[in-house]
Amino acid sequence: MKVFFMFVHQAGKWMKNISINIKPLTSVLVKPTGPDCNLKCTYCFYLEKAGLFPETLRHRMSDEIQEELIRQVMQQSGSSVSFAWQGGEPALMGIDFYKRAIELEKKYGHGQTVGNGLQTNGTLLNLEWAEFLKQYDWLVGLSLDGPEHIHNHYRKDNAGKGTHQKVENNARMLLENGVAVNVLATLNDYSVQFPDELYNYFKSLGLTWMQFIPVVETDPADPSRAASWSVSAKAYGEFLCRIFDLWLADFKNGQPTTQVRHYDSVFYPYVGLEAPECTLLKECGSYVVIEHNGNVYSCDFFVEPKWKLGNIMQSRISAMLNSKRQQTFGAAKAVLPGECRRCPWLTKCYGGCTKDRIKDPMDNRKPRFCLSYKMFFAHADPTMKALAEGWKAQQRNIQERERTGGTYNAFKDFIK
Ligand code: SF4
Ligand code: SF4
User: Fold this and answer.
1) This prediction's pTM
2) DSSP reduced 3-state for 15
3) Closest by alpha carbon to 237, among 377, 381, 379, 375?
4) Ligand index nearest the alpha carbon of residue 354
5) Residue 341: is it exposed, middle or buried by C-beta count within 10 angstroms (0-12/13-18/19+)?
6) Of 79, 87, 84, which is closest to residue 101 (Cα–Cα)?
7) Coil, strand or helix: which one is 57?
8) What is the rounded CA–CA span in Å between residue 64 and residue 62?
């Protein structure tokens, strides 16, 4: 991306502007507890990362690493930046770690907008957490796979017991306290069979921001194939089409009343904007992952030695984001088979997530969910086009109203 960079001398004695090709630091994904978690979900791909940090059994970010991380991010970012605190289970750090994060963001910020998100399994939260999260306007990504029989199918604790009741209770508690919650539901071989039940269950709880994440993992017992809990392309395609119809049926006055992340993201290219989800972009590499010990990696799904970019105690985060290695990682997404390059959906799909091409060796590095995307676009394209036309007309009206003193912002209304 072409950006204008401004160097400001510490004392403000001189300034100069230079124009260079550089990716701005706009978001980081932080894993303050590394792979440590209080649950043992069957499909989790991150627990095994403990093997990367064998020095200790307990992984926790130190005060020193936390401060250096926040100092760098605040000082190297532009007018807005976001921190996604993730795991493992990030709530294992305890709430004081996050209170300190707020203080450090204030200390090192230079007036920019800062977003914080906590992606959590929800089992350790309580009223004190809710009040904190509300006070500082954090977005919670809550892992809840659905009603009891779906959630407990794979989301179990260390004793093998289901965790549904606790998470549902805490979802209610967060919502009652005004916390913004985005439900994160994995789609596996079991849950994918219940689109209506999932959608209606989340709606009934008041969880109207939904994100469905298809699971595909290599079978730990047989690396030549996908694990049994992986979702098939056909089942995922049928799921996307059905949820789309449910989402559409809930429109009121031309506006959606629920947010389904995938549809929001897919909509962007229809109005000429870049999708906010990396899976729909031409290349990867727009953010980095920072582990508990300060190690920096290319992506959440590629925390492995090959894609280690460095450590924040030795290198600048923005330099690692713009490193040759990260560029190489990003460019791999654009290496697509001929079928993709000739596909009418290419600019809306770009082959999906890179990791979904490698987790099942039987896919031969082709986009696993190609069939899903084709099914979905064939189903949703006419509606998306109509919605895009409506949105563009609204934009013209807004421009007209702004020209004449109106202030309504439809962009804000439609795309959250
Ligand atoms: S591998 Fe997938 S999740 Fe990672 S940056 Fe690329 S598209 Fe995004
Ligand atoms: S729909 Fe399939 S063939 Fe078309 S770009 Fe996406 S993954 Fe490639």
Assistant:
1) 0.89
2) strand
3) 375
4) 1
5) exposed
6) 84
7) coil
8) 5
What's the DSSP call for residue 194?
-
Q: DSSP state, 27?
A: E
pLDDT in tens, 55-83: 888 999 999 999 999 999 999 999 999 99
Mutate to test the pocket of ligand 1, among 86, 309, 355 (most ligand atoms within 8 A of CB): 355
Mutation probe of ligand 1 site: the residue of 261, 284, 307, 327 with most atoms within 8 A of C-beta: 284
Rounded CA-CA distance 159/404 in Å is: 64
88 Rama sector, left if φ>0, alpha if ψ -120 to 50, beta otherwise: left
Instruction: Provide the pLDDT for residue 51.
Output: 82
pLDDT in tens, 240-284: 999 999 999 999 998 999 999 999 999 999 999 999 999 999 999
pLDDT digits (tens, 9 = 90+) for 7-19: 222 233 333 344 4
- Residue 206 CB contacts under 8 Å (≥ 6 apart), including other chains: 172, 175
Residues with CB under 6 A from ligand 1: 278-279, 284, 299, 301, 333, 353-355
Phi, psi of 377 (to 5 degrees): -65, -40
**Which two three-digit tokens encode residue 256?**
């959606």
Q: Which of 277, 233, 191 is nearest to 372 (CA)?
A: 233
Q: Is the CB of 367 under 6 A from ligand 2?
A: yes
Task: Give ∠ CA 351-295-261 in degrees, rounded to 5.
Answer: 35
Q: Whose CA is nearest to atom 5 of ligand 1?
A: 284
